[in-house]
Specification:
Blueprint (H helix, E strand, L loop, with lengths): L5 H15 L12 H24 L14 H23 L3 E16 L3 E15 L9 E16 L2 E8 L49 H10 L4 H4 L19 H10 L14 E2 L7 E2 L1 H4 L1 H11 L2 E7 L1 H5 L18 E6 L2 E11 L5 E5 L3 E6 L9 E8 L1
């Protein structure tokens, strides 16, 4: 969506301000490969120990990795505590058990600062979960990618986090959580949203006429350019023929439009409102309906290319009815779309790319890159509502 969100403001304004306070002379210091490797190993250690805390709830060692003598390190620590609490609550409410969570980082840039090292790194999560009450539980996988801008400082012979800024897939669900530390976290007694098991049959789409929507190809495109290499098998994170709006308003709607309309993807025919112009020497630029979330939602509905299945909060779209034992979300098909609204403002777009072993819809999206993520993960604030859109 083309606008600057609060989380992105932190990332794109605070970080440059912090960097500007660093004396220019220190940037001449060379960072060699051994230093980069050491820093990458330290970050992987920190992140994977944090991943184990998602599983165990034991946060006792978490402060060990943060410089809490400054407010930025304290904020970073508190944010991680909130994330762990939220994910454990979310999985408990849905009777899901995480069996493994791991993280891998790729260092993109290391720059010396007056305190230590400024690091730009991509983090790639892999989550595995089961429904433990099933007779033969099946392992489900999903992935999330985060872009970190962090500063590390030396404490003794190890690196610790002085500050860490990133757009977070969980952020909108963290408002009700405390960042105060308890050694052992137990899931809260929030009400469960356990849904009936509604597994999906394999989807087959045959003989799609040119210019009509090919759902299978749209999903294949979404997976290929999801931005998470372990999931896509594609070292090229995004399709380079398009502009990337991450950092200048968000890339989620641009990505969904690509899935719908690219000839490698859904192949949906352009028209005078929804289209993309392919530039010879620069990334393709799209119309307002191509890149703006509100405009795309309105275009799909009023053009007749999309139909709202249901609009409402989580309870409204998941509550069973006489016709739908699994609620309105069970009507979603591969290649359908979900809009996420904060109040009346459409804030995010995602495409349905799969269903887990219980038929729970899974989505891909950009800005914070997601691959086959449970559709509501990270959207727990009471002000959030959803538009379930069936593509015709």
């Amino acid at each position: 969506m083309i606008k600057i969100k609060s989380a992105m403001m932190k990332y794109f304004i605070l970080i440059p301000l912090l960097i500007n306070f660093t004396p220019k002379s220190v940037y001449a210091v060379e960072v060699n490969d051994a230093t980069k490797e050491n820093i990458q190993n330290e970050i992987n250690l920190i992140f994977n120990d944090r991943c184990s805390m998602f599983l165990t709830g034991d946060l006792s060692s978490l402060p060990y990795y943060f410089d809490t003598s400054n407010k930025f390190g304290t904020w970073a620590l508190e944010h991680e505590i909130k994330r762990i609490r939220y994910l454990r609550d979310w999985s408990n409410q849905r009777d899901i058990k995480f069996t493994n969570i791991e993280s891998e980082t790729q260092i993109k840039k290391v720059t010396p600062t007056s305190r230590g090292m400024r690091v730009r790194a991509d983090e790639y999560y892999k989550f595995q979960y089961i429904y433990p009450n099933d007779a033969e539980p099946i392992i489900n996988n999903f992935g999330v990618s985060l872009i970190h801008s962090m500063e590390l400082i030396k404490k003794g012979d190890r690196w610790i986090i002085y500050n860490d800024w990133y757009t977070d897939c969980f952020e909108d669900a963290l408002k009700s959580y405390s960042g105060e530390l308890n050694d052992k976290e137990t899931p809260s007694d929030k009400p469960k949203y356990t849904l009936p098991c509604c597994p999906k049959e394999e989807f087959i789409q045959k003989d799609v006429p040119k210019g009509h929507y090919n759902r299978v190809k749209a999903v294949e495109y979404a997976d290929k350019y999801c931005g998470i290499p372990w999931a896509s098998g594609n070292p090229q994170k995004y399709n380079k023929k398009y502009k990337n709006f991450t950092g200048i308003g968000g890339n989620c709607t641009n990505y969904v439009s690509q899935c719908l309309g690219d000839t490698e993807g859904g192949g949906l025919k352009f028209d005078g409102t929804w289209y993309c112009i392919y530039n010879k020497y620069d990334g393709a630029s799209g119309s307002s309906a191509w890149v703006n979330a509100d405009a795309l939602k309105n275009y799909l509905i009023y053009s007749g290319r999309g139909m709202i299945i249901k609009k409402g909060d989580f309870k409204a779209v998941t509550s069973p009815t006489n016709e739908l034992s699994c609620g309105a979300v069970s009507k979603l098909q591969l290649g359908d779309l979900i809009c996420y609204a904060k109040g009346s403002d459409i804030d995010h777009f995602a495409i349905v790319t799969g269903f887990d072993s219980h038929g729970y819809p899974l989505i891909n999206s950009h800005t914070t890159d997601r691959y086959h993520v449970p559709w509501d993960l990270g959207w727990g604030d009471k002000n959030i509502s959803f538009y379930l859109i069936h593509m015709r």
